[in-house]
Design goal:
The protein has 97 residues and is an all-alpha fold. The protein has one domain. 72% of the residues lie in helices and 0% in strands. It has 4 helices and no strands. The chain has helices spanning 2-21, 35-45, 54-72, 77-96. Helix 1 packs antiparallel against helix 2, helix 2 (35-45) runs antiparallel to helix 3 (54-72) and helix 3 runs antiparallel to helix 4. The protein starts with a helix and ends with a helix.
Protein backbone atom coordinates (compact mmCIF):
# COMPACT_ATOMS: atom_id res chain seq x y z
CA UNK A 1 0.00 0.00 0.00
CA UNK A 2 2.90 2.34 0.65
CA UNK A 3 4.12 1.94 -2.92
CA UNK A 4 0.67 2.81 -4.30
CA UNK A 5 0.52 5.83 -2.03
CA UNK A 6 3.91 7.15 -3.09
CA UNK A 7 3.18 6.38 -6.75
CA UNK A 8 -0.12 8.25 -6.60
CA UNK A 9 1.39 11.21 -4.79
CA UNK A 10 4.39 11.53 -7.07
CA UNK A 11 2.20 11.12 -10.16
CA UNK A 12 -0.15 13.86 -8.98
CA UNK A 13 2.65 16.26 -8.10
CA UNK A 14 4.63 15.50 -11.26
CA UNK A 15 1.69 15.80 -13.63
CA UNK A 16 0.55 19.06 -12.02
CA UNK A 17 3.97 20.67 -12.27
CA UNK A 18 4.54 19.32 -15.78
CA UNK A 19 1.16 20.65 -16.88
CA UNK A 20 2.06 24.09 -15.58
CA UNK A 21 5.48 24.06 -17.25
CA UNK A 22 4.08 22.98 -20.60
CA UNK A 23 1.30 25.54 -20.48
CA UNK A 24 -1.52 23.00 -20.42
CA UNK A 25 -2.85 24.42 -17.17
CA UNK A 26 -3.89 28.01 -17.65
CA UNK A 27 -4.85 29.94 -14.56
CA UNK A 28 -7.16 32.34 -16.37
CA UNK A 29 -10.29 30.57 -15.11
CA UNK A 30 -9.35 30.61 -11.44
CA UNK A 31 -7.79 32.97 -8.98
CA UNK A 32 -4.17 32.01 -8.48
CA UNK A 33 -2.43 28.99 -9.89
CA UNK A 34 -4.65 25.99 -10.58
CA UNK A 35 -1.71 23.58 -10.67
CA UNK A 36 -1.20 24.10 -6.95
CA UNK A 37 -4.47 22.27 -6.25
CA UNK A 38 -3.05 19.18 -7.97
CA UNK A 39 0.14 19.40 -5.94
CA UNK A 40 -1.90 19.85 -2.77
CA UNK A 41 -4.03 16.81 -3.68
CA UNK A 42 -0.84 14.79 -4.11
CA UNK A 43 0.38 15.88 -0.71
CA UNK A 44 -3.00 15.08 0.87
CA UNK A 45 -2.63 11.51 -0.40
CA UNK A 46 0.49 11.13 1.73
CA UNK A 47 -1.64 11.66 4.85
CA UNK A 48 -2.94 8.10 4.67
CA UNK A 49 0.49 6.86 5.72
CA UNK A 50 -0.33 8.12 9.21
CA UNK A 51 -1.77 5.33 11.33
CA UNK A 52 -5.49 5.94 11.62
CA UNK A 53 -8.79 4.23 10.92
CA UNK A 54 -9.49 2.79 7.49
CA UNK A 55 -12.59 4.96 7.02
CA UNK A 56 -10.52 8.09 7.62
CA UNK A 57 -7.97 6.91 5.07
CA UNK A 58 -10.76 6.26 2.55
CA UNK A 59 -12.11 9.76 3.12
CA UNK A 60 -8.65 11.26 2.58
CA UNK A 61 -8.18 9.33 -0.67
CA UNK A 62 -11.62 10.43 -1.90
CA UNK A 63 -10.91 14.04 -0.96
CA UNK A 64 -7.58 13.92 -2.77
CA UNK A 65 -9.14 12.45 -5.90
CA UNK A 66 -12.00 14.94 -6.05
CA UNK A 67 -9.83 18.00 -5.39
CA UNK A 68 -7.22 16.84 -7.88
CA UNK A 69 -9.72 16.31 -10.69
CA UNK A 70 -11.43 19.63 -9.95
CA UNK A 71 -8.15 21.51 -9.80
CA UNK A 72 -6.09 19.98 -12.59
CA UNK A 73 -8.76 18.31 -14.70
CA UNK A 74 -7.97 15.55 -17.17
CA UNK A 75 -4.26 15.62 -16.31
CA UNK A 76 -5.02 14.20 -12.87
CA UNK A 77 -6.65 11.01 -14.21
CA UNK A 78 -3.52 8.78 -13.93
CA UNK A 79 -3.22 9.68 -10.25
CA UNK A 80 -6.99 9.34 -9.82
CA UNK A 81 -6.89 5.80 -11.21
CA UNK A 82 -4.11 4.92 -8.78
CA UNK A 83 -6.22 6.45 -5.99
CA UNK A 84 -9.12 4.21 -7.01
CA UNK A 85 -6.86 1.15 -6.73
CA UNK A 86 -5.69 2.47 -3.36
CA UNK A 87 -9.28 2.87 -2.20
CA UNK A 88 -10.11 -0.69 -3.28
CA UNK A 89 -7.06 -1.90 -1.37
CA UNK A 90 -8.26 -0.02 1.73
CA UNK A 91 -11.74 -1.54 1.40
CA UNK A 92 -10.23 -5.03 1.33
CA UNK A 93 -8.22 -4.18 4.42
CA UNK A 94 -11.38 -2.92 6.15
CA UNK A 95 -13.17 -6.18 5.42
CA UNK A 96 -10.32 -8.18 6.97
CA UNK A 97 -10.44 -6.31 10.28
Amino acid sequence: MKTLTFLSSLTAIGVSILGQWLGVLDDSYAVGNAWFVGVLAGLITLLILIDSQVMTKNFIVSLSTISGVLGVGFLYFPAAIINIFLSINLDKKKDLT
